[in-house]
Amino acid sequence: VPWTSLPGLLRPSCHSFLDPFLGTFPLPADRPESPISSFTLGLSDMHDKVTAIWQQLTQRAAEPGAPGSALHAACRVQPSASLDPAQPRVSGLVLFRQPAPGAPLEAFFHLDGFPAERNGSRRAIHVHRFGDLSPGCEAAGPHYNPRAAPHPHHPGDFGNFAVRDGRVRKHRGGLAASLAGPHSIVGRAVVVHAGEDDLGRGGDPASLDHGNAGRRLACCVVGVCGPLPWARAAREHAERRKRRRDSDCQAA
Ligand SMILES: [Cu+2]
Ligand SMILES: [Zn+2]
Questions:
Q1: Tens digit of each residue's pLDDT, the chain (252 residues)
Q2: Where is the Superoxide dismutase copper/zinc binding domain (predicted)?
Q3: How many Å lie between the centroid of ligand 2 and the Cα of residue 130?
Q4: Residues carrying an active site annotation
């Protein structure tokens, strides 16, 4: 668009109307006398700078293994505020780590307070849609389902977890959920259920909605955190595995 072909529109009174449009076109730099041209050049320059910073940040984050590039999140599990007194009071910590945006997620599930049965029951854990849990875990709403998929193909369908001695201690990798991007689970809820997830094989519509996993015992909101909680959990996990190996060797 030639500069001179916008008669009338370039009067100073038209600034606010034109600026968003002019800012996207390269304008001649040899017109320092026009207040519009210097202002729009400034806008265009600012846009370039912001784009450069954004690219730098996303590129750095996309390099797996680069120091500080991994994303971390934590969820401090608490018994539901609406819990029936007959139900177990489950609490603990769920930690997430994602090497880069778009990479598979891994998680530590660290829960206590289940009935201490010998032969472990299995309990479902999912990511639910809402992060307001003040009236109880029901407020978390349905499964987080940004792609309108059936259960168990929601990003936060973590499946079933075996309880041993009233506890869950589990590391899972290759999870579909993400801590970055438009479908990030940050700010959404993790819900621990009283029952087992039928994984969509229940034969009823509810099975393809939530897996008939039963009551919501405990929940938490996923929040961004630094790398230290994950490092600590990974160390404890490695020590536990070593102890188990050692005791298996002694028993053999
Ligand atoms: Cu659930
Ligand atoms: Zn689901």
A1: 344 443 433 444 434 343 443 444 444 444 444 555 566 566 656 755 655 555 456 555 555 556 668 999 999 999 999 999 999 999 999 999 999 988 999 999 999 999 987 677 999 999 999 999 999 999 999 999 999 999 999 999 999 999 999 999 999 999 999 999 999 999 999 999 999 999 999 999 999 999 999 999 999 999 999 999 999 999 999 998 999 899 888 877
A2: 90-222
A3: 14
A4: 126, 128, 143, 151, 154, 157, 193, 216
pTM (whole model) above 0.70:
yes
Which tokens belong to 245? 């190996």
Q: How far is the CA of 84 from the centre of ligand 2 (A)?
A: 24
Ligand at shortest distance from the CA of 196? 1
Structural domain boundaries in the chain: 3-62, 71-247
> Taking Cα atoms as reference points, which of 184, 91, 66, 168 lies closest to residue 123?
168
Q: What is the dihedral of CA 158, 162, 168, 169, to 10 degrees?
A: -80
DSSP H or E run through 132: none
Ligand nearest to the CA of 210: 2
Q: What is the CATH number of domain 71-247?
A: 2.60.40.200
